[in-house]
Design a protein that fits this description.
The protein has 122 residues and is an alpha+beta fold. It is built from four helices and six strands. The termini are far apart. 35% of the residues are buried.
Length: 122
């Protein structure tokens, strides 16, 4: 599926079947590129993830993740290191390295960056 972001640049969002079969064995990171996230610098966040991933993590731009008020949003689907989906909110470019290393490589999600609506703390 292809969509337009606010500055009319095409954003490629892999369809679910491509997500499941591409980059087998690698953690996957989806960085929202839709309107509110784009206004908050999601292009820089995406670029930081691509730079930090260095081929060890598959990084994709995504369409809206439904948490616009908490953007920039990043979704990491369940994988062999961590068995459940995780959503991060208000992600800044300088946090990409920490997320790649701690979550994607070591399997330790970063609780302080998790989206509070998706991961409530009691």
């Amino acid at each position: 599926m292809q969509m337009q972001n606010p500055v009319n640049h095409p954003v490629q969002d892999p369809v679910p079947s491509q997500r499941a079969t591409s980059h087998l064995g690698q953690p996957q990171v989806f960085v929202c590129q839709y309107m509110n996230c784009a206004e908050r610098g999601s292009a820089k966040v995406l670029a930081a993830f691509v730079t930090q991933a260095e081929g060890t993590v598959a990084v994709f731009p995504s369409s809206c993740q439904g948490q616009c008020h908490l953007g920039v949003n990043v979704h990491i689907p369940a994988n062999t290191l961590f068995p459940r989906d995780v959503w991060y909110s208000q992600v800044q470019p300088e946090q990409a390295e920490q997320i790649i290393v701690e979550h994607c490589h070591q399997g330790h999600p970063i609780a302080t960056l998790m989206n509070p609506r998706m991961h409530p703390r009691f």
